[in-house]
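Pipeline run #58 for the internal structure catalog. This entry was flagged by the ingest filter as a single-chain record with no existing model, so it goes straight to prediction. Upstream metadata was stripped on purpose; only the residue string is passed forward. Reviewer on rotation: M.T. Logging verbosity set to normal.
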Amino acid sequence: QVQLVESGGGLVQAGGSLRLSCAASGRTFSSYAMGWFRQAPGKERGVVAAMSRIGGNTYYADSVKGRFTISRDNAKNTVYLQMNSLKPEDTAVYYCAARTTSSGYSYYKEERAYDYWGQGTQVTVSS
């Protein structure tokens, strides 16, 4: 089992940047494919970015392509979401998620694919 703790959220002006971090407990972080999801008020939670266990395969939602970057440091048990050129519509609670997988190169876009979730961190982008 793994526990996920997000950090790095906050209030930023449109056009600004934030970097979210998600620290995982345990010693098997490299066993997990990782994802970032977000939920805005009144909307369903949806995928923002996802990354394979190894191999560096990534997926981005169309709304964040070219602005957000997912990365991971397996030595630090941490996955990151670098968010640039933020827009007011990026305002949401951001969650990281982990999926146990034997596949080193698969990423997962569906919420139901993930086994573990963090508690979320609020990102607010002002216009």
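catalog note: The chain has a mean pLDDT of 96.
catalog note: The radius of gyration is 14 Å.
status: ready for reviewer M.T.
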